[in-house]
């Protein structure tokens, strides 16, 4: 059974801090790892990683995947109050199409 | 540009009642799925479909039925609602190809009393 574990489960920081969110996984035939941001409503897509060691970057957010050690990190630099959200990590398998297996999520709160 | 549309946004049911949650997408996506989200448990897959006429069970299928008669629509039926089905339900769709990300609807908050 596929398993995704995120840590920490919650995190409170001040504006301007840098945060690192962790996602480890156990998947039989790994295909991809995805990060989503969820603010109140629907999860919105951030990154998809399929190759190890390649960093995906968008503004202050970046993510890297380590397929050997089976984990990914999501970094947010110079945090803003608008970054407050639940960050979800999910994986897909080669044999199960686009099925997503999610972790529990990390609740990030950025205080002014 | 509608994307994935879910209705209703909120619903209160009595135990034993049945209802259908609607989901429609206008992106011609092959793959559609239903998730439920409960506190501390992330999103869990209920049922999914890889194309019209094809459905399969996910992680937590009991108490739910689905059908996929068209590419656009993927309704989720609760047969006899139970308090344990109180949750937020999300419908998602994707191209179904290699590594395609899923697009989510805005969710349905369901309370069963």
Model description:
The complex is a heterodimer of chains A (112) and B (113). With 112 residues, chain A is mostly beta strands. Chain A has strands spanning 3-7, 10-14, 19-26, 30-38, 43-49, 55-58, 61-66, 71-76, 85-93, 101-102, 106-111. In chain A, the strands form 2 sheets. In chain A, strands 2, 4, 5, 9, 10 and 11 form a 6-stranded mixed β-sheet that branches. By secondary structure, chain B is mainly β. Chain B has strands spanning 4-7, 10-13, 19-25, 31-37, 43-51, 54-57, 64-66, 76-78, 87-94, 103-104, 108-112. In chain B, strands 2, 4, 5, 6, 9, 10 and 11 form a 7-stranded mixed β-sheet that branches. In chain B, a hairpin with a 5-residue loop joins strand 4 and strand 5 (43-51). Chain B starts with a strand and ends with a strand. Classes of the chains: A mainly beta (112), B mainly beta (113). The A-B interface holds A 4, 9, 31-32, 34, 41-45, 48, 50, 88, 90, 92, 97-105 and B 4, 31, 33, 35, 40-45, 48, 50, 58, 90, 92, 94-107.
How would the blueprint of this fold be written?
The complex is a heterodimer of chains A (112) and B (113).
Chain A: E1 3-7, E2 10-14, E3 19-26, E4 30-38, E5 43-49, E6 55-58, E7 61-66, E8 71-76, E9 85-93, E10 101-102, E11 106-111
Chain B: E1 4-7, E2 10-13, E3 19-25, E4 31-37, E5 43-51, E6 54-57, E7 64-66, E8 76-78, E9 87-94, E10 103-104, E11 108-112
Parallel strand pairs in B: 2-11
Antiparallel strand pairs in B: 1-3, 3-8, 4-5, 4-9, 5-6, 7-8, 9-10, 9-11
Brief sketch in words of this structure:
Chain A is mainly β and 112 residues long. Chain A contains no helices and eleven strands.
Q: Look at the structure and give the mean pLDDT of chain A.
A: 93
Alpha-beta content class of chain B:
mainly beta
The main pleated sheet of chain A reads as:
6 strands, mixed
Helix content of chain B: under 10%
End-to-end distance of chain B, in Å?
36 Å
Please report the number of helical segments of chain A.
0
| Helix content class of chain A | under 10%
Could you list the spans of chain B in which at least 5 consecutive residues all have pLDDT below 50? none
Shape of chain B: globular
Shape of chain A: globular
| Number of E-type strands of chain A | 11
Q: Oligomerization state of this entry? A: heterodimer
Mean pLDDT of chain B: 93
